[in-house]
Design a protein that fits this description.
Elements: E1 3-7, E2 25-32, E3 36-41, E4 44-49, E5 56-62, H1 67-73, E6 80-85, E7 87-88, E8 93-98
Parallel strand pairs: 1-8
Antiparallel strand pairs: 1-5, 2-5, 2-7, 3-4, 6-8
Length: 123
């Protein structure tokens, strides 16, 4: 059975971790409802609940054999937790959300698009 996974950072097409999705089926582009915040933690982003940002990403159908490798890449469940996320017109999906104890003070990506991260001052 496939898990629908919303990705928003280094797992997206053209990014450093995308090879981990080689066996996943690309469903299409997606955006979250405007109730999240996208943080920049150095070379990778983090999605947290709360905020007013609609975050841009991609949805993949991921098989049960691929999920453990993605969890390891995302350091889940220690750093991230895979949890449901509210998407606009893309149906139900889960995403890797940064666990509350790791939030700290990190710069935000106010436009919600990791691919445009260099447009943010200090990025």
């Amino acid at each position: 059975m496939a898990t629908r996974l919303f990705i928003y950072g280094t797992l997206m097409r053209g990014e450093v971790g995308h090879h981990l999705l080689a066996d996943a089926r690309y469903v299409g582009p997606a955006r979250t409802h405007a109730r999240y915040t996208l943080l920049r933690l150095g070379w990778y982003p983090a999605l947290i609940e709360g905020g007013e940002t609609s975050v841009r990403g991609e949805v993949y159908a991921v098989d049960d054999e691929t999920l453990p490798a993605l969890d390891a890449y995302e350091d889940a469940p220690a750093l991230y937790a895979r949890a449901p996320v509210a998407l606009l017109d893309a149906g139900p999906a889960s995403a890797y959300l940064l666990r509350a104890e790791h939030r700290g003070r990190h710069p935000t990506i106010p436009h919600g698009d990791w691919r445009r991260r260099d447009e943010v001052p200090g990025g």
